[in-house]
Design goal:
By secondary structure, this protein is α+β, with helices and mostly antiparallel strands. It folds into 3 domains: about 120 residues, Rossmann fold (3-Layer(aba) Sandwich), CATH 3.40.50.20; about 140 residues, D-amino Acid Aminotransferase, Chain A, domain 1; about 60 residues, Dna Ligase, domain 1, CATH 3.30.1490. It has 11 helices and 14 strands. Helix 1 links the parallel strand 1 and strand 2. The protein is globular, with a radius of gyration of 19 Å.
Length: about 350
């Protein structure tokens, strides 16, 4: 198959996407596909899988907002023109955040009838919008933390402190309402760091989602096709699974299968698959949870384009059931053209 891997893009998760895209393109080429790579913000430049044009590393923190290239209507037109000229059998999006994961790219591909891997435009949009996704989780009995959604224009420290204390108190988790990779994530014990957290989230051009902090364990479930894979427990050495812990080797311990009971494993898989289904996801996703010491589970979010870096969780879950990285991306490619 002729496959174009889309990577990079214009979100704060750009460098993660570049790393994921390089890995996926190389693996697909190893399986015998004709593979090309393309950066979403530079769609005129296209490279064979084994020619590395993207030298950026993930780094220990996300790029500054001003350093992120912006996607424009002209670049969208150039992207679609390049795809029309190249006539791929399949597009494999490896884009995290921004228009590459929130449904806009998927809508454009659907409009012109180009097959692609991953969830469609509707599911992608719903999953990226965390408040809407949480409403749908509750509708099918998947527990999720309570939340406050604060518009950027109303996010001053005093009023937000009052709302947090009124609804669930500190400690509290603050994050953008539609970003991933722990970009803009803050866990606050009290209101002392609130003003800085609000300013950073506002600088990312997102509203502020606030949840009570759920003490306990960090777990995740990969859904592949119609099957939930063994859950993984995530143990960041620094205590918080932030950007540094996610993408720097040696900063996090991963246990797969997670050391939980059979009943807890069954519930994790059930809730993970339900969350995937209620959003309308397809092919694959990764569903993140917190589990309290009493065994209560809380679904945090669904990732429709999970990372595929050397520290990423979906490849670890697939490996636990005997699927190599190359087999995983080849299987996903097959799903994309079915």
């Amino acid at each position: 198959m002729k496959i174009i891997v889309l990577m990079g893009g214009e979100s704060a998760e750009r460098r993660v996407s570049l790393t994921s895209g390089e890995a996926v393109a190389h693996a697909l080429a190893e399986k015998g596909h004709e593979v090309f790579k393309m950066d979403l913000i530079d769609p005129v430049r296209i490279a064979p899988a084994k020619v590395s044009l993207f030298k950026e590393s993930v780094g220990e923190k996300p790029p500054e907002v001003d350093d992120i290239p912006r996607f424009t209507p002209r670049r969208l037109a150039a992207l679609m023109e390049t795809l029309d000229r190249q006539q791929p059998d399949l597009v494999f999006p490896m884009l995290h955040g921004g228009m590459g994961e929130d449904g806009r790219l998927q809508a454009a591909l659907e409009m012109v009838g180009i097959p692609f891997v991953g969830s469609g435009s509707s599911a992608s949009s719903l999953a990226m919008n965390k408040p809407k996704a949480k409403c749908l989780f509750r509708s099918v009995g998947v527990p999720t933390p309570d939340e406050l959604l604060i518009a950027t224009t109303e996010a001053d420290a005093n009023s937000v402190t009052d709302k947090i204390e009124q609804f669930f108190g500190f400690p509290a988790v603050l994050k953008p309402d539609s970003l991933g990779s722990a970009v803009g994530l803050f866990i606050l014990k009290d209101s002392s760091g609130l003003e800085e957290a609000l300013e950073q989230i506002k600088s990312l051009n997102h509203n502020v989602l606030i949840e009570p902090f759920i003490p306990g364990r960090e777990l995740t479930v990969t859904v592949l096709g119609n099957e939930a894979l063994p859950p993984i427990e995530i143990r960041p050495h620094g205590g918080v699974y932030d950007y540094l812990s996610k993408y720097t080797k040696g900063h996090t311990e991963y246990l797969c299968p997670a050391p939980v009971s059979e009943e807890e494993t069954a519930r994790l898989k059930e809730y993970g698959f339900k969350a995937h289904q209620v959003l309308g996801c397809r092919h694959y996703s990764r569903v993140d949870f917190r589990m309290t010491d009493d065994g209560d589970l809380y679904c945090l979010e669904v990732n429709t384009i999970p990372g595929m870096t050397s520290t990423s969780l979906v490849p670890k879950a697939a490996n636990a059931v005997g699927i190599s990285f190359e087999e995983l991306v080849d299987e996903l490619a097959g799903m994309g053209v079915m």
